[in-house]
């Protein structure tokens, strides 16, 4: 549910953008502000999540995120101004940032080694399902309001319903968080060994030597100390290589422009001559492709490993983004009067779907799995927070610049994304180490 809300909250703005522009009479700059400002909240939430997880525990941190999601949903539904909407979006962003860190941390600590990659990929599956449901809800609400996001349903505009509906899954998230066990590693760290033993027996099975597992975890914890930012460095302002690799993977995941599809696809397709209703339908179809790609990753991540999937995805994304850039170079006109020739329009649609598929079966899942696995135990939660924060800042940079870049030159914008996809190939080949089949205690 944390991943679901992560996906829903971050992508639901896609359907509401046009309504927000019309309701508040704002242009590209204000639109980018509303969409992107939540990502700054996400970066702050990601930074705070590691310390919250170590101080409050994993489950209580999830409960905090659920409360923030619910409050943000209600506030975003009834904003008196675009600036106030931005503040509620920041609060929701903080919840997203917390959820983005706590879920992979918790899953990595609870999952048996043999199934850890597959179970960690459920986080990404939940995210893409949240994205898909948000696009389905947006399309349904838009259709019910007569094909206009500013149309009224029960006296409230459709775009307001889009932003407010997330309150329901937020409540479900909080209720479900109360039903899961605390991480055994956290329980041992706070001296609750009896409860940790029970949880380990539940999640790792009857055939596990609990005494040996408890001793292994305790020995790692005993030789560690409470992580501080200086533990991530090798000297003055020099981060550990493994932390840089985590940051690099996070940045590449965003700089290929994936969230342009999920945040702006409605106005992206309108900018090449497709009406609002059909653009939301395309957004839904790409979200379904995203789910399919994630299922493929879940099947393969523990069978062939993290690194091969990432390499295959990088190659596919480079080809798809390059093709989209070629197609968009034929755009003529501006704003709502812009069009693409029939052939290039079809190629752009296919390329966008292929790009989403390649991302989903590779970087969409692999990066979150790696971030939950690649760091040593003593710095895992804090290092994951730093890497996730870098991911949100990269996401913000792409999101806040896209409207102006698209107005300048849509084709050149996609050339930039294609270049980052190309550069991700040597990055994976040279710096990413395979973590499949390794216990977390082996990560040195």
The count of DSSP E runs of length 2 or more, i.e. the number of strands, is: 4
Strand order of the largest sheet: 1-2
Structural class: mainly alpha
Bin the helical content.
over 70%
- Under CATH, the homologous superfamily reads MFS general substrate transporter like domains
Strand content: under 5%
CATH second-level architecture: Up-down Bundle
Q: Roughly what is the average pLDDT, rounded to an integer?
A: 85
Radius of gyration: 22 Å
Low-confidence stretches: none
CATH-derived topology = Growth Hormone, Chain: A
Q: Termini separation (Å)?
A: 31 Å
The biggest sheet amounts to: 2 strands, antiparallel
CA-based shape: globular
Q: Please, how many helices?
A: 18
Tell me the domain tally.
Answer: 1
Q: Give the C-level CATH assignment.
A: Mainly Alpha
- Helix and strand string, N-terminal first? HHHHHHEEHHHHHEEHHHHHHH
Description of the molecule:
This protein has one domain: Up-down Bundle (Growth Hormone, Chain: A). It is 76% helix and 2% strand. It has helices at residues 2-11, 13-24, 28-56, 58-77, 82-110, 116-144, 158-164, 167-177, 184-189, 193-204, 210-222, 241-255, 258-270, 276-300, 306-328, 342-360, 363-373, 380-431; strands at residues 152-153, 156-157, 233-235, 238-239. α2 (13-24) packs across α13, α12 packs antiparallel against α17 (363-373) and α12 crosses α18 (380-431). The chain is globular, with a radius of gyration of 22 Å. It starts with a helix and ends in a 13-residue tail after the last helix. The mean pLDDT is 85.
């Amino acid at each position: 549910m944390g991943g679901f809300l992560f996906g829903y909250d971050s992508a639901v703005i896609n359907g509401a953008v046009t309504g927000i522009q019309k309701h508040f009479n704002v242009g590209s700059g204000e639109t980018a502000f509303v969409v992107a400002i939540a990502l700054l909240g996400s970066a702050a939430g990601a930074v705070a999540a590691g310390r919250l997880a170590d101080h409050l525990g994993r489950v209580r941190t999830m409960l905090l995120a659920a409360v923030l999601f619910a409050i943000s949903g209600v506030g975003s539904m009834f904003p008196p101004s675009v600036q106030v909407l931005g503040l509620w979006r920041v609060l929701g962003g903080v919840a997203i940032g917390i959820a983005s860190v706590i879920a992979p941390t918790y899953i990595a600590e609870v999952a048996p080694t043999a199934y850890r990659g597959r179970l960690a990929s459920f986080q990404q599956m939940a995210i893409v399902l949240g994205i898909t449901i948000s696009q389905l809800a947006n399309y349904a609400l838009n259709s019910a309001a007569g094909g206009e996001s500013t149309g009224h349903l029960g006296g409230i505009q459709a775009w307001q319903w889009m932003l407010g509906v997330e309150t329901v899954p937020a409540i479900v998230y909080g209720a479900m968080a109360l039903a899961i066990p605390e991480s055994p590693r956290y329980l041992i760290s706070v001296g609750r060994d009896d409860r940790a033993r029970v949880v380990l027996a539940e999640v790792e099975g009857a055939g596990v030597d609990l005494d040996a597992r408890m001793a292994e975890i305790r020995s790692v914890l005993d030789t560690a100390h409470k992580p501080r930012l200086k533990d991530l460095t090798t000297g003055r302002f020099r981060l550990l290589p493994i932390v840089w690799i985590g940051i690099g993977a996070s940045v590449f995941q965003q700089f290929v422009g994936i969230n342009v599809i999920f945040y702006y696809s409605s106005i992206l397709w309108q900018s090449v001559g497709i009406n609002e209703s059909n653009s939301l339908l395309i957004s839904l179809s790409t979200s379904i492709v995203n789910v399919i790609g994630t299922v493929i990753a879940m099947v393969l991540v523990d069978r062939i490993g993290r690194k091969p999937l990432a390499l295959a995805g990088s190659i596919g994304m480079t080809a798809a983004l390059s093709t989209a850039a070629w197609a968009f170079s034929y755009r003529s006109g501006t704003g709502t009067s812009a069009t693409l020739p029939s052939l290039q329009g079809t190629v752009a649609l296919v390329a966008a779907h292929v790009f989403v598929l390649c991302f989903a079966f590779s970087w969409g899942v692999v990066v979150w799995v790696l971030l939950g696995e690649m760091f040593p135990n003593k710095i895992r939660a804090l290092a994951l927070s730093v890497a996730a924060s870098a991911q949100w800042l990269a996401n913000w940079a792409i999101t806040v610049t896209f409207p102006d870049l698209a107005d300048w030159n849509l084709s050149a914008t996609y050339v930039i994304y294609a270049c980052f996809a190309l550069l991700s190939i040597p990055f994976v080949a040279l710096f990413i180490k395979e973590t499949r089949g390794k216990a977390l205690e082996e990560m040195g």
